[in-house]
Amino acid sequence: MLSRTADHLFWMARYTERAENTARMLDVQHQAALLPPPDAGIGAAERASEHLDWRGLLGISELTEAYTTRHGAIEAGKVLDFMVRDMDNLSSIQSCLRAARENARAVRGAITTEMWETINQTWLESWRLLADGRFERDPGEYFEWVKNRSHLSRGVTSGTMLQDEAFHFLRIGTFLERADNTARLLDVKFHALQAEFHGSANGRVQEYDFYYWSSVLRSVSGFEVYRKVYRDVITPERVAELLILRPDMPRSLAACMLEGTAHLRAVANRRSHETLRRAGQLNAELQYGQVAEIMATGLHAWLTRFLERINELGGGISQDFLAA
Fold it and tell me: Which of 43, 86, 253, 275 has a Cα at 20 to 30 A from 210?
């Protein structure tokens, strides 16, 4: 396969997944901001921390400087607009949908007609939804629509694509981006507790904890999965274990690396030995790791290192397969 074709397929999948995960991240923050305070004292503290929550969301996306340059003070409405429709923000949902469409158009011959029509329709319909004010009326409904269109795109890919090299590069892009975004989402929400997290957060109100952690789980479609696996109260350690180490949880880091490594192995060439070795090493650490070891390191530190390694893998893939 030509490297430029592989590059377009890889980034088409990444941008589609990034749009979905941005919607998931914004949705959980929007829902958390709507939670009723458990009592007057704690409620005041939570309201005072809302500004920091939105700043943390921008920070983990590495967009704080870009936002403050354009908008100044951090306000929930402005952050939502910046992350959803601002075309000057290359990580906004609209920018991602446009980039996915442009990459798909460049490789029309390598994808099916159904795939192209799905991606193109998503881009066009998203503009219509934003223009008619639906986002302002109910941001949650719009975020759900973005997630559903991403599901549709993956379903069409699996149901219509020949499982050749083109398919493998699409899946590599999907799982690499998903791992990156799940790690970022976890870091955002645990960052609200403290910069380093080594165990249960003491002093928090149990009722608020339930809504807080259930909203995190719902953002990755993990609430019912958590109940089925643990059958107990929601605790931060188990949330971390589910979203990091469970290979049977579709959006966990372990599941992403397991799938991503398998597809990377399928397209391996003479240049990709080191990249495949790094992917396999990270995959093995997740398959055989324990949450206690991660907590001993400090969750923020562990996630920061994980994101660095994912970035290194992306660079290796670009060098081995996508560079002309």
Answer: 253
Q: What is the mean pLDDT of residues 143-150?
A: 95
Residue 270: count of CB within 10 angstroms of its CB:
6
Give the Cα-Cα-Cα angle 202, 204, 207 (nearest 5 degrees). Answer: 135
The C-alpha angle with vertex 186 and arms to 98 and 235, in degrees rounded to 5, equals 145
pLDDT score at 189: 77
> What's the pLDDT at 216?
83
Structure token pair of residue 280: 């396999």
Which of these, 253, 254, 275, 255, lies nearest to 264 by C-alpha position? 275
Question: What DSSP state is assigned to residue 110?
Answer: G
Q: Which two tokens stand for residue 56?
A: 């943390």
Structure tokens at 243: 């979203």
CB 115 within 8 A of CB 156: yes
Question: Which structure tokens are listed for 63?
Answer: 């967009």
Amino acid of residue 136:
E
Element (H, E) at 174: helix 165-191
Q: How many Å separate Cα 7 from the centre of its chain?
A: 20
Q: Are 283 and 258 in contact (CB under 8 A)?
A: yes
Q: How large is the average pLDDT for residues 186-190?
A: 81
Which two structure tokens, joined as six digits, stand for 95?
């920018």
Measured from the Cβ of residue 66, the count of other Cβ atoms closer than 10 Å reads 17
What's the whole-model pTM score?
0.89
Please, what is the Cα angle at 182 between 206 and 291, to 5 degrees?
A: 60
Considering Cα of 294, then 299, then 304, then 310, what sign does the dihedral take?
Answer: positive
Strand, helix or coil at 50? helix
pLDDT band at 133 (very low <50, low <70, confident <90, very high): confident
Kindly report the number of other CB atoms within 10 A of residue 228's CB atom.
8
Instruction: Give the whole-angstrom CA distance, residue 324 versus residue 260.
Output: 23
Query: What are the helix and strand counts (H, E) for the chain?
Result: 16, 0
Task: Report how far residue 107's alpha carbon sits from residue 102's, in angstroms, rounded to the nearest whole number.
Answer: 9
CA 320 – CA 322 distance, rounded (Å): 6
